[in-house]
Design the sequence.
């Protein structure tokens, strides 16, 4: 038990429940939901496992010190007292990022600078040398969080945001974040037991995330690096053991995952990304205009997609476009559970179908809705009977 410590997984608004469930299923202890985060307890091996295996986490932080701050000097004094030499060599490099909700510290960059000064001064006092600042590839990435009068100093175990899975080399105009895509698919209840479709697939993010969920493939296997790989206590043998144990839990998938896009360049990008993710045996992409298609066969179909919102596309008649979504679903896709995300809440009215569910989410800073349309075989009444 002595080797266990508290960690904090950061996530997107509305994903706290999903992330808590993911953590519990991975084997985390003392899982507690916060706002845009979930705290939990585990050991070093579990820290590696969380970074490799969580679909809806953006970062995994390891808090090392917490204290009260009333004035600026409090921050400097407490940070300088931390034994940074246990975490970093004086010849190493560091980066600090900060989030602040406090009347004394109002600028996150200034807070990060004061923290860096305190760490550097400690090293200078010890042996006259000091670590460098490297914002891109630091040996140690430090996170400062000040909320009212409570400051928490954490080590960033992930480094770059965990949505950067490593399979995406090509993107289109408005690519959906991988963590958001995975969360939406999980929220939609897809379990890999039916065919899956994204009829406006762009660079293929939904399709890749759906395939990884279906096959239970750890989402971050392809990342080039995690921050903890530069730590003093990095254990490559333990990491490989954890990786192997996660790979043993992958499962077979016996359905189809299909993507359409009417843009030839989007289709090419999606095919590249799916190939990079080594998922081309599960995912098939076609150059099609969704509005000219219909469902083939009578199998149940699960659809999740991110149509244009109208912000970035000129010459898009948004009302007509969303009207066409409704018409195509109604006439061409019986036996389908169709989920779409949009921040254009006005345009949703043009779909002309009654959603059976509406969930508030955020796409970057845009407030959006994930809505579900149930397309029945024949009439709704007949299907109930």
Sequence:
């Amino acid at each position: 038990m002595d080797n266990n410590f508290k960690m904090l997984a950061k996530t997107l608004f509305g994903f706290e429940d999903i992330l808590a469930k993911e953590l519990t299923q991975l084997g985390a202890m003392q899982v507690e939901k916060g706002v845009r985060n979930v705290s939990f307890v585990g050991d070093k091996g579990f820290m590696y496992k969380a970074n490799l295996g969580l679909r809806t986490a953006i970062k995994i932080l390891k808090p090392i010190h917490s204290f009260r701050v009333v004035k600026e000097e409090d921050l400097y004094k407490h940070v300088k007292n931390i034994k940074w030499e246990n975490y970093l060599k004086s010849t190493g490099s560091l980066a600090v990022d900060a989030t602040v909700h406090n009347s004394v510290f109002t600028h996150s960059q200034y807070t990060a600078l004061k923290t860096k000064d305190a760490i550097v001064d400690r090293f200078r006092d010890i042996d006259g040398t000091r670590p460098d600042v490297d914002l891109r590839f630091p040996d140690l990435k430090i996170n400062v969080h000040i909320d009212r009068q409570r400051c928490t100093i954490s080590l960033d175990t992930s480094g770059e945001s965990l949505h950067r899975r490593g399979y995406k080399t090509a993107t289109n105009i408005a690519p959906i974040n991988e963590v958001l895509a995975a969360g939406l698919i999980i929220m939609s209840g897809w379990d890999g037991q039916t065919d899956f479709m994204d009829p406006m697939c762009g660079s293929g993010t939904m399709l890749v995330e759906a395939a990884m969920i279906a096959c239970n493939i750890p989402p971050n296997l392809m990342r080039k690096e995690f921050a903890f790989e530069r730590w003093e206590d990095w254990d490559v043998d333990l990491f490989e053991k954890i990786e192997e144990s996660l790979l043993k839990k992958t499962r077979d998938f016996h359905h189809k995952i299909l993507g359409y896009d009417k843009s030839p360049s989007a289709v090419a990008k999606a095919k590249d990304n799916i190939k990079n993710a080594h998922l081309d045996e599960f995912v098939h992409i076609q150059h099609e205009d969704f509005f000219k298609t219909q469902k083939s066969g009578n199998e149940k179909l699960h659809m999740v997609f991110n149509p244009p919102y109208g912000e970035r596309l000129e010459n898009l008649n948004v009302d007509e476009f969303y009207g066409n979504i409704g018409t195509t679903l109604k006439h061409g896709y019986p036996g389908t559970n169709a989920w779409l995300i949009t921040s254009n809440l006005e345009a949703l009215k043009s779909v002309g179908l009654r959603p059976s569910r509406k969930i508030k989410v955020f796409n970057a800073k845009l407030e959006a809705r994930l809505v579900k349309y149930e397309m029945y075989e024949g009439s709704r009444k007949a299907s109930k009977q």
The radius of gyration is 23 Å. Confidence is low (pLDDT under 50) at residues 381-385.
